[in-house]
């Protein structure tokens, strides 16, 4: 039987559970029983191998998909869902129904399940390897090493201490349990970096501060734990066994060297022959897929685990685009939701929870629990010692206890080598679900990215002093938005007295990689081959900095991250650099139906989350120009309008426009819309503050002939739309606030037109897809007060924010304009 099966020990366990009285030494299959003739010809599909396999694949996926909504309120990861789905179909639940297993999972059908599940798991391990970038080792800090090593050491110490206590206590322990406890303590003390990386990515915490620390620390723990297991397994073995282990280790090392220095250069050479920007040749992808099977065969042939070859081969594949991302896109869905559920079902078929003795479960669980406590305390204590905040230290300690498919594979290998026996193996599988399932809701409760802003000093454009540095985080997704953002920065009036400091972040979607990467660039050269797509963008901002001779400074970065967590990178940048403004582009919509293009959905998601969690003011740029403009010429007149209705966001928009007014080539028009009603609909204090701001800016800019103030009186939202349509093609730049009081008659009726939450009601009216204007719309959201107190928009110097050097030097003459 073992000659035709990948994992024959599972078949032995299956026979012992379902057919204990029978002695199976072989599985008989009929060559002709492959395709069924159909029910209408009295042919039972479950008697034939292909229909049976299709039914098993379908059932495994359906159970996983049906289990997912039940666990969604707890936010459980896919691994917990799939393992529970496997247990549901096994002898623990549905398998206890008479005849269910004999019909759906008959003994003769296990050959196909075994082959498909193992092949699927090979590609899964290959996929894990593809998403691992080994160069992360270069970025590991001293605190990561301390946390990683202390996690394993304390877990191992407590686990072995518990084992020593149980073995020396006056307890009647079964021989199988007693012999398994040392290996159990050791295996429970190690953790796998790929599992933690996948877990944090799925929970959208990979870009958090504790997530990055946990990733680096788990990499150290993974390597250190592997060394500990190798050392402990070698001790106490006979000379012949030690020699065999040395041979296996030498084979593994030789195998890894051949792949790293033989296969990887060939793949890189093939990639270099593909022109940049063109899709990969399908032949290359098929050859890579073939390599997964070949490496699996080679690793099995030299005595290694069948999954070792695909894992090392995957690590050798260059992570990220173009090859890594293409492989992930093609393999992720079919591997994660078709083959892996079948793999967990096969494990569930040979896992009978009710076969456990309660006493044995408590003994084994005691050792596992001590090891988990050791992991938590080891990470917690070393994190606090490394001056990590307590909340983040607790989160790191929890994450270090996460387990997944790699640990399951290790447990099965230990069971196959008789290091642990059946009951300890079942307890390990149960513990994996219980611990990971318990940690997840706790971690979600503790993780709140908005808390980091609670103690953060309020930073808005209004709060800036006239002579202070204006710090901006500029987000770039592609080259199309570069001219617009550069033009915006230029009209923000950078001077040596009030310079503009730009943190440039080129945001690249993370595909085909397990962990995010932040690459810092120098303006004279790019220091990473991973960021070749950033070269043109960085060079454009380099020219901008050189042309302003100290009035503009740029620090460029490339952030490779998934869209779901990309906002964390942006907000961390703004937080660390004490930025007052985040500039991000608006997602593109189809000009035909106004729908969001699939490629732009991630940008919309990112913008929504930036608006929710930003530690400063946010400006979303809507570029409606059909032809991209070049850099703004200092002699070219630019007409700017601030559309003012009222509220904090409009006041922030007005402060941005006031800063622009200091630029000699800027004509600024403030268009204030007032309601034609005597009924008070708004907060009296907010209305008073609006009037104070308007009066202050009019007095501060009196004498600047390039600034005009006008009022428009409307009856309802229809009148507001008419004003919008009358000015949208008269200005190159229009600045509006995002949020407005929905009780105002000015806004009534406009909410039905709202298409995008990131722009607000008025901003979306300006950015409608059917508008023919080429003006640039800037939608502003003022920094939210996360402390729960009332926002104050006045700095220590009153309204000095509206003053600029060029304005103050002008003679005092009335503002031009008209009141309608």
UniProtKB/TrEMBL annotation:
Keywords: Ion transport, Membrane, Potassium, Potassium transport, Transmembrane, Transmembrane helix, Transport. InterPro entries: Cation/H_exchanger_TM, CHX17_2nd, CHX17_C, CPA2_transporter, Na+/solute_symporter_sf. It is found in: Membrane. It is a multi-pass membrane protein. One of its GO terms (molecular function) is antiporter activity. Residues 63-444 form the Cation/H+ exchanger transmembrane domain. GO terms for cellular component: endomembrane system; membrane. Residues 640-783 form the Cation/H(+) antiporter C-terminal domain. One of its GO terms (biological process) is proton transmembrane transport. Residues 504-625 form the Cation/H(+) antiporter central domain. The chain crosses the membrane at residues 48-67, 79-98, 110-133, 145-169, 181-201, 213-236, 248-272, 284-311, 331-349, 361-381, 393-413, 425-447. Belongs to the monovalent cation:proton antiporter 2 (CPA2) transporter (TC 2.A.37) family. CHX (TC 2.A.37.4) subfamily. This is Cation/H+ exchanger domain-containing protein.
